[in-house]
Amino acid sequence: MSDFQRIASVSELEDGGRQSFLIDDIPALLIRIGDQFYAIEDVCTHDGQPLTDGPIENGEITCPRHGARFDICTGAALCMPATEPVPTFEVEIRDEAIYVRSND
Questions:
Q1: Percentage of residues of the chain with pLDDT beyond 70
Q2: What share of the chain is helix, strand, coil (3-state, %, to 5)?
Q3: Cα–Cα distance between 58 and 103 in angstroms, integer?
Q4: CB atoms closer than 10 angstroms to residue 5
Q5: How many Å apart are CA 10 and CA 95, to the nearest integer?
Q6: Which of 24, 41, 53, 56 has its CA 20 to 30 A from that of 68?
């Protein structure tokens, strides 16, 4: 299993904020909701487009291109046209720093 990678400081992301990053050469998105941090692959499983700018509401991110929605905690596809989940990554907070580990 891969080691954790430091992605950002807690103070860098406001509630509702997001930050793009690469983990093992995979585009990913770090999202903050309240005091919780989530990391998902930044690619819609429907057509491969980035989720980066998709609206986030009620713990879901919507693909800005075709409207597929994904649970940011589990990655589950919540509506068509997506049928496959988005991979998620383990997030850990240490000394006010955010670390993410790939799921290989």
A1: 97
A2: 5, 45, 55
A3: 25
A4: 16
A5: 9
A6: 24
pTM higher than the cut 0.85: yes
What pLDDT score was predicted for residue 102? 79
The residue assigned the tokens 């409207």 is 67
Strands (E), 10-94: 18-23, 26-33, 36-41, 56-57, 60-62, 69-71, 88-94
Amino acid identity, position 91: V
For residues 54 and 40, give the distance between their C-alpha atoms in angstroms, rounded to a whole number: 13
CB atoms closer than 10 angstroms to residue 68: 25
Using DSSP, state whether 9 is helix, strand or coil: strand
What is the rounded CA–CA span in Å between residue 32 and residue 26? Answer: 19
Class for domain 5-101, per CATH?
Answer: mainly beta
Structural domain spans, the chain:
5-101
